[in-house]
Amino acid sequence: MIKRIDHIGVAVRDLDKTIELYKDVFGFELLEIEDVPSQKVRVAKFDVNGVHIEFLEPTSEDSPIYKYIEKKGEGMHHIAYFTDDIEGELEKFKEKGIKLINEEPVKGSSGTYIAFVHPKSSIILTELVSKGE
Ligand code: ZN
């Protein structure tokens, strides 16, 4: 079952500048900075009173985030929901004919497993997140 919003993902060109802005001006708490090789991004994770905002900087030109910024510019990229049963959710989506980017969970940041639902099916690019075993 989907439990809550896990985080909001925002695509940026320059992570260091973004960190300065959101740490020093907005005053958000920086939780961590992490490389996520499976998505070819560097991620800065902020906490805003229990809701996480993740800023994503592409680490290579074949990163999905690089392509996104080239096409649409910086900005809101995806919304992520936490689920206690990512495999079950993916099965349900497949049965309903929902278009998936990841048919199986892949490794996300901080030991999580993630899968993306195609925005053609979910209006906005949607990520499912579960804790690793
Ligand atoms: Zn995400």
Kindly describe this structure.
- The chain is an alpha+beta fold and 133 residues long.
- The chain has one domain (2-131): 2,3-Dihydroxybiphenyl 1,2-Dioxygenase, domain 1.
- It contains 4 helices and 8 strands; from the N terminus they run βαβββαβαββαβ.
- The chain is globular and about 45 Å long.
- The mean pLDDT is 94.
- Bound molecules: zinc ion.
Q: Which terms summarize this structure?
A:
about 130 residues; alpha+beta; 2,3-Dihydroxybiphenyl 1,2-Dioxygenase, domain 1; eight-stranded mixed sheet; 8 strands; globular; binds zinc ion
Bound molecules: zinc ion
Question: What fold name stands as the CATH topology?
Answer: 2,3-Dihydroxybiphenyl 1,2-Dioxygenase, domain 1
Sheet with most strands: strand arrangement = 2-3-4-1-5-8-7-6
Supply Rg. 15 Å
Number of E strands: 8
Give start-end ranges of low-pLDDT stretches.
Answer: none
The portion of residues forming beta strands comes to 35-45%
Number of DSSP helical runs? 4
User: In the CATH hierarchy, what is the class?
Assistant: Alpha Beta
CATH superfamily: 2,3-Dihydroxybiphenyl 1,2-Dioxygenase, domain 1
* Largest sheet composition: 8 strands, mixed
- Can you tell me the overall shape? globular
Number of separate structural domains: 1
**Helix-strand category:** alpha+beta
Please bin the fraction of helical residues. Answer: 25-40%
Q: Give helix and strand order, one letter per element, not per position.
A: EHEEEHEHEEHE
pLDDT averaged residue by residue: 94
User: Which architecture would the CATH scheme give at its second level?
Assistant: Roll
Separation, N- and C-terminal Cα atoms: 17 Å
